Amino acid sequence: MFEYAPAPESVRPQIKEHYGLFIGGEFVDAEHVFKSINPSTEEVLFTVAEASEADVARAVAAARKAQETVWGPMSGTERGKYLFRIARLLQEKAREFAVAESMDNGKPIKETRDFDVPTAAQHFFYHAGWADKLAYAGLGADPKPLGVVGQVIPWNFPLLMLAWKIAPALACGNTVVLKPAETTPLTALMFAELCQEADLPPGVVNILTGAGTTGSALVDSAVDKVAFTGSTAVGRAIAKAVAGSKKKVTLELGGKAANIVFDDAPIDQAVEGIVNGIFFNQGHVCCAGSRLLVQESVAEEVLARLKERVSLLRVGDPLDKNTDVGAINSAEQLERITALTEAGRGEGAEVWQPACDLPENGFWFRPTVFTGVQQSMRIAQEEIFGPVLSVLTFRTPDEAIAKANNTPYGLSAGVWTEKGSKILWAAERLRAGVVWANTFNQFDAASPFGGLKESGYGREGGRQGLEAYLDV
User: Fold this and answer.
1) Mean pLDDT, to the nearest integer, of 376-400?
2) 41, 190, 288, 296: which is deepest, by most CB within 10 A?
């Protein structure tokens, strides 16, 4: 293997020492603060205000006023202009946002640069186009906004999840109170500054930083809809909290996706898809292809090529453009990944990891492949949310579908075969909201995304994703 010289990112964003809450178009402080840590170095990046229940109420009131007096009455054409402006500003500041995301989250710069930020901008461009065309979305002749939307997003795609939530909400005439994850608030706060630069009317977007108590307060507040992306356990608690109320809810939760490789699959292409499916973003992906189901007749060949490919992955500094696998987002998540990996060893699965040096500081975990995995093992049933792949085999297509569906989740799946008829046959039988064919982890703002079973309900993106933000 060629040895590459380090290629460090030269751009460094202007990160403030402290950030307040963004309420009513202005940054305001709070009684308590907490630290945001760079997971690749364990250094403190900045301190940030922690929103209290009173702060949540103030933000919701500001959003309500903006929705009733400015944003709701505004024409769709004018709202679209603001969304276009935000999208263009994101493009102009793309490198700064990409570097900040890598520093705060731990993911490689080539992912934030080439995927996260461009796709976030794409969502604002796409939904800007819908702002004056809602009557033609097939959701009724005169759809109305819901009002104020409370949104809680996770730490794995901080800016992209913000765009998934805020863009359709604003396009439909709603105002927003959004809480980013406590470990990754930076790009949300930078987005608040971008809203100021775009002259977005005060109160249309409000950003509240904090931990779980802040999120709970937002769910319980006087919002008209709750949109959540995160763990199934928290999603279940949110559903219980809003039961009996008039609040609309969409939940995009966990997953344990099956990536099925049939014996007629293009092996080299499939191996690349397997690697992308589980090691992209360190496996911190709800739709990650964390279960590989490979047909017995090609299992030996697939595994040999997979291990060879994984051994070439570069683990290290997220700001090095050569890095393939960055840092785990937090010490807490690293502990969970380690515990479930040890559980896999204890249950008898065989573990393989490539030889690679890990940095001394920060939170790191080697890419891991488990073979000899049984359906009943924890590593085959529980979401690990890390760079850990569980490999199972099957003999017949029916067995592959049965094993793929044998999980409480139903977010995504992948199918690898040269036969179009087999793709359609499998897709019809897989209990998953998204099925990729001869690819994995492909997203577009025009395509709806969401799950079945314990992976949640509702759709985000596309024409279908507008419905959750409209009174129809």
Assistant:
1) 98
2) 288
For 27, the 3-state DSSP assignment is: strand
What one-letter code names the amino acid at 151? Q
CB of 249 closer than 8 Å to CB of 239: yes
Catalytic-labelled residue, pool 252, 383, 454, 467: 252
Question: Is residue 172 annotated as a catalytic residue, yes or no?
Answer: no
In this structure, what is the dihedral angle of CA atoms 200, 222, 155, 39, given to the nearest 10 degrees? Answer: 90
Q: How far apart are CA 165 and CA 178, in angstroms?
A: 9
For residue 45, which of 13, 22, 90, 7 has the smallest C-alpha distance? Answer: 13
Q: What is the pTM of this model?
A: 0.96
Secondary structure letter of residue 325 according to DSSP: B
Over residues 265-288, the mean pLDDT reads: 97
What average pLDDT is seen over the chain? 97
Residue 252 annotated to the active site: yes
Strands 452-453 and 409-410: antiparallel
CATH 3.40.605.10 for the 18-253+455-471 domain, yes or no: yes
Neighbouring C-alpha atoms within 13 Å toward the C-beta of 41: 11
144/162 Cα distance (integer angstroms): 22
Task: Using the predicted structure, report yes or no on whether residue 171 has a pLDDT greater than 60.
Answer: yes
Superfamily of domain 258-437: Aldehyde Dehydrogenase; Chain A, domain 2 (3.40.309.10)
Residue of 195, 286, 383, 460 marked catalytic: 286
Q: What is the CA radius of gyration of the chain?
A: 22
| Cα separation, 462 vs 247, whole angstroms | 22
